[in-house]
Design brief:
Helix 3 packs antiparallel against helix 4. The model has no long low-confidence stretch (mean pLDDT 83). The strands form three sheets. This protein has a three-stranded antiparallel sheet, with no helix packed on it. Strands 1-7 form a two-stranded antiparallel sheet. It has 202 residues and is of the alpha+beta class. Helix content is 41%, strand content 19%. The chain starts with 14 loop residues before the first helix and ends with a strand.
Length: 202
């Protein structure tokens, strides 16, 4: 009686199931990341951190908010002005200056890869998991789709762990002060929460 590479005997009773497994292995795939159709803003943020980016002012300066601005734009703050020979926008009350924004011609966001870096570090682990799950697939214990779901969940967990571990390049002191966190990829948790996976079929 014919036996496949996984030691499963192929007979008249299971040959159709076995054929379906082979077809499904070629039909399903895993997609991992932040999907633009789900959240285009965080997909953009992920892309910026993964590859780095230099943001240049459209006019003369970018206005980088300081904590006293409380999330307001420069146009929303009355009495805002640029003190002579400074690179800030400030307000003044009773002769006391309160810096509200720092002026920059450009801001460089360094590359902090978390998807490609996770793949480089964890590819062997993911391959090993796939091989173990394939044994279960060919033993008819789980389906191909269930196998890919489990692999997708593991890949996402590893990428999220990578995000939590990244500390370099570090945030600037201004960014740390603004966001209240030293982890360059974690602000309010929005990025890490949106890393997900999909099992898709062709």
């Amino acid at each position: 009686m014919p036996t496949n590479n996984f030691g499963i005997q192929v007979n008249q009773d299971n040959i159709l199931e076995f054929q379906k497994i082979i077809e499904d292995l070629g039909r399903y795939r895993i997609e991992v990341g932040i999907f633009a159709e789900d959240d285009s803003f965080y997909a953009m943020i992920a892309n910026v951190h993964e590859y780095g980016m230099t943001i240049k002012a459209k006019k003369k300066f970018l206005t980088i908010p300081l904590p006293p601005s409380e999330g307001r734009s420069a146009s929303e703050i009355e009495g805002l002005f640029r003190p002579p020979n400074t690179q800030i926008l400030a307000t003044s009350e009773n002769g006391v200056l309160t810096p509200m924004f720092v002026l920059k011609e450009q801001v460089k966001i360094p590359e902090r890869s978390f998807i490609r870096a996770s793949f480089d570090e964890k590819e062997g682990d993911w391959t090993g998991l796939m091989e173990r799950l394939l044994d279960k697939v060919f033993a008819f214990e789980i389906t191909v789709e269930q196998m890919f779901e489990q692999v997708g969940a593991r890949v996402v967990a590893d990428i999220q762990a990578k995000i939590r571990s990244i500390s370099s390049p570090a945030n600037s002191s201004l960014t740390k002060k603004n966001k209240g966190s030293s982890n360059p990829l974690i602000d309010d948790g929005g990025l890490i929460q949106r890393i997900t996976w999909k099992v898709v079929s062709s």
